Inverse folding.
């Protein structure tokens, strides 16, 4: 009887928003398990909002970089200037090719071939201190085509952080390319 009463009260608190922090802690992110292993959010294109894109013309990371996050995370960022804990950012890298069109010569387009995906999960509470892909407020992951079930990043300091150093002042995220965050 007491457990039923407690469950009813807890359910009521959730409905009015008073128990949200407890609930958020329990489900942190659907892309993260209890050990901090980050999984590839396969449905990101249909469930997330496109934040913006980059084009890298040369090098190993060349191609189109499209970045996505949850719609709720965009709203939270617009109000607070930071991503909420549990926010998932997905950056897909697509191969580009240049062709001549009536609009110009050497016009680049994505050809549909994926190079890789980077996934970051916001964690300001440092939940996974024993997991080397977590730190500096984020979980860091790299996935390649053909095996999106395995995070290839093994240590975020070695595998990920160097590319983000110029964005340290904006919580390691290059927010200037994401117009959706300021709309």
């Amino acid at each position: 009887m007491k457990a039923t009463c407690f469950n009813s009260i807890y359910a009521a608190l959730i409905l009015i928003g008073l128990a949200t922090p407890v609930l958020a802690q329990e489900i942190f992110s659907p892309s993260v398990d209890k050990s901090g292993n980050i999984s590839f959010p396969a449905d990101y294109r249909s469930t997330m909002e496109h934040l913006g894109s980059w084009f890298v013309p040369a090098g190993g990371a060349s191609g189109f970089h499209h970045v996505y996050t949850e719609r709720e995370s965009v709203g939270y960022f617009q109000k607070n200037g930071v991503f909420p804990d549990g926010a998932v950012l997905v950056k897909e890298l697509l191969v580009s090719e240049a062709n001549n069109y009536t609009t110009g010569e050497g016009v680049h387009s994505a050809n549909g071939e994926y190079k890789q995906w980077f996934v970051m999960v916001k964690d300001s509470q440092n939940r996974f201190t024993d997991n080397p892909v977590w730190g500096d407020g984020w979980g860091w992951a790299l996935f390649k085509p053909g095996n999106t079930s395995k995070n290839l990043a093994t240590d975020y300091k070695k595998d990920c952080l160097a590319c983000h150093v110029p964005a340290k002042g904006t919580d390691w995220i290059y927010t200037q390319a994401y117009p959706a965050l300021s709309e």
Q: What stands out?
A: The radius of gyration is 19 Å. The first helix runs from residue 2 to 16. The longest strand covers residues 104-122.
